[in-house]
Amino acid sequence: MMMDPRELRIDDFDYSLPDDRIARYPLPDRAAAKLLHYREGTVTDRHFRELPDLLPAGTLLVGNSTRVIHARLYFPLPTGRTVEIFCLEPLRPVDYALSLSATQGAVEWKCLIGGNRRWKSGSISLPVHQADDTFTLVAERLERTDDTFTVRFTWSGPRELSFGELLEAAGTIPLPPYLGRAAEGEDHHRYQTVFAEREGSVAAPTAGLHFTPQVMEGLVDREVDFRTLTLHVGAGTFKPVSAPNLGGHVMHREYFSVSIELLHRLEAQLRAGRPIVSIGTTSMRCLESLFYLGARGMTEGNWENELGQWVATEASVSRTDAAPALAALIHHLEMTNSESFTGYTQLMLTPAARPRIVDGLITNFHQPRSTLLLLVAAMVGDAWKDIYQHARETDYRFLSYGDSSLLWRRSAGA
After folding, report:
1. How far is 321 from 319, CA to CA, in rounded Å?
2. Could you give phi then psi for residue 262, rounded to 5 degrees?
3. 336 with 178: CB under 8 angstroms?
4. Angle, alpha carbons 399-218-216 (nearest 5°)
């Protein structure tokens, strides 16, 4: 009988992480990072440039094509102080691409506001210099929901400029809070993967930061098939689990988009029994969400594009096999003449249920007591403790700019 993930204690996913083990800056050479390789209880130490040699020929490798936006904006106030507006996700238009490409009218975003009490009333403006021109970006605070605000942005200038271009010119890269520093010039390049294409994230899918063109060429030589999906990483990925049990934690929601071509490729890989490896926890969260979306559609006829936090506990869904679930999702797209499945996932992955799509996970080393560490435990079970102890004892660098690991899924019953 499957355990109820809501009863899992977060204290069981804690470990000591000394401050000096957190990598504050990236290595000059992305692929020079250490790579911990774990399979069936065995740990070996490699370097990331050796990754292609560790993947069997015929592996399907899936990365996240999201690109981090310059989401932090600092608006001056008449008092001489500033207000920080942190853009989280678009509300009007709700589509990321449409909002970021908008060149006129107004866009509305869900935002965090630092120094909100200083912003007494009315709109505030920020001069934005782009090329040889100066634009004015205006922010108007609308309604509040819990700790976030709806902010309407309008802008004007001598020529047409998209909201995304304004963010690029006026904003800064939102580095994770645990790095304890502001973004610097190098971060604008290094906090993006080499396969980043679609703007929308406020945090990088950091497992992909180790890839280089040379590593990508090695994958081709090894006959590894590299594909991408998109999941825009939200600030909630850093939200700590403060409740004693997971049942008291509200998982953050993230936008994703997967093409029908990738779904066909995933189904074929599953039916052939060949490995599927996820580059990072964000890709894995999306891939596993596809299983639950397809399984729910098969068993309940429910094709909504939002997935809840505890769907893995539903018995009818959990008994479904992976390949038929993806086939059902493909059929649904074909019947609706859709080229992709786009939606939102709130799925929490825990060791209470084994992954259904992903065989291997490439990932960095995560914070204690985090939902990302729970996801690692979903892959390897209690072995995460030995893996993390080994990493600490052998000088691995931790968190976003740290070293990497390749973890293979635990056997059934483990």
Report:
1. 7
2. -65, -40
3. no
4. 55
Q: What is the pLDDT of residues 73-130, one digit of tens each?
A: 999 998 899 999 999 999 999 999 999 999 988 999 999 999 999 998 899 999 999 9
Does residue 224 sit in the same domain as residue 150? Answer: no
Regarding pTM above 0.90, the answer is yes
- Give me the pLDDT at residue 318, please: 80
3-15 burial by CB neighbour count: b if 16+ within 10 A, else e?
A: eebbebebeebee
Residue 241 lies in a domain: yes
- Token pair of 215 as six digits: 């590593």
My answer on whether 77 and 44 are in the same domain is no
Which residues, 6 or more positions from 99, have their beta carbon under 8 angstroms from its beta carbon?
A: 90, 92, 93, 107, 109, 163
- Domain of residue 260, residue span: 5-68+191-408
Taking the C-alpha atoms of residue 255 and residue 257, their distance in angstroms, rounded to an integer, is 7
Q: What is the dihedral of CA 396, 217, 257, 312, to 10 degrees?
A: -50
- pLDDT confidence bin for 237, thresholds 50/70/90: confident
Hey, what are 395's tokens?
């000088």
Q: Is 397 left (phi over 0), alpha (psi -120 to 50) or beta?
A: beta
The answer to whether residues 280 and 134 belong to one domain is no
- The neighbour count for residue 107, using CB atoms within 10 Å, is 23
In a domain? residue 271? yes
